[in-house]
Amino acid sequence: MWDWVKHLIMPIFVSAFGGLAGFSRYMRGNMLEVIRQNYVTTARAKGLPESEVIYKHALRNALMPIITLLGLSIPGLIGGSVIFETIFGIPGMGQLFYMSVMTRDYPLVMGILTIGAMLTLLGNLLADVSYAIVDPRIRIK
After folding, report:
1. Contact status, residue 58 vs residue 70, Cβ threshold 8 Å
2. How far apart are CA 34 and CA 136, in angstroms?
3. Structure pTM?
4. Which of 68, 81, 105, 108 is most buried by its number of CB atoms within 10 A?
5. Is the distance from CB of 134 to CB of 63 less than 8 angstroms?
């Protein structure tokens, strides 16, 4: 098991690191926008500690667009898996999809596209559930 995990560290790092810069810039822009809002100024004026103002008031509202981007990034991960699987020699769904397209194995192509669509729907469902966790106004009572 440890050998398997040890060989997956680099592919996971490479696939996660590519989108990290974009997400961090987007998060920075959202936080700068949210911090200038009136409710953050009001929370500071009430005498709340700065950590509570940032983490409880500002961060929760700045996370909403990031959650949307994370939910929509799943198709990009599936598409990028072809490149990572080829570079690292991992036999996976990306290489299987590429080979099935090249050999015109249409049932296999449709099956892999169906799995990708299901994973995309699952990502959107997780994003919607995360909205309810982050923003109490969205919760159903």
Report:
1. no
2. 17
3. 0.73
4. 81
5. yes
